[in-house]
User: Fold this.
Amino acid sequence: SRAWLAYNYQNRFQLTPLSYVPAECASGFSSEQCAEGFVTTAGNTLRIVTVERLGEVFNSQEIQLKYTPRNFVVHKPTNHLVIVEAEHNATTDKKPPPSESETEELNFISRAKAGTGQWASCIRLFDAAQCKTLDVIELEDNEAAMSVSTCIFHERPNETFIIVGTARSLQLTPRKVECG
Assistant:
């Protein structure tokens, strides 16, 4: 599998494949000589990488999401993306997912507004290499998924857990929640 660069550019989420030496680990990096870059390791080699012309498209794949993407994390054991999506002023759709032929038609239909402080949300497991959704878990009505992370517990070192931060009855202005 190849490495991917995920970033926000002009208020849009971008996922770009990298044609580069495979990396074992990567992290953000900033210094006087390199304002925006990342550092990677591969074997016993450390590389500092900058990406020129971030806005240019090298390879682009568009995927249809149900709600607005709020955050994502890479599940390292599988290299799948875990994406949390949430939509304000919406309710969870209890209907089964539409067929492929119905999907395009439904893209033009807007949802009825549910009201301030109402949320619809889901957690999506996505295989970026195959560009397909593996699973979608709908959250209860009025629960907004806003953050996601992975965690390995000391007692269970061979398992990677997904942690999702949610809020119930999130009101944006003034900021308040029922719980979360």
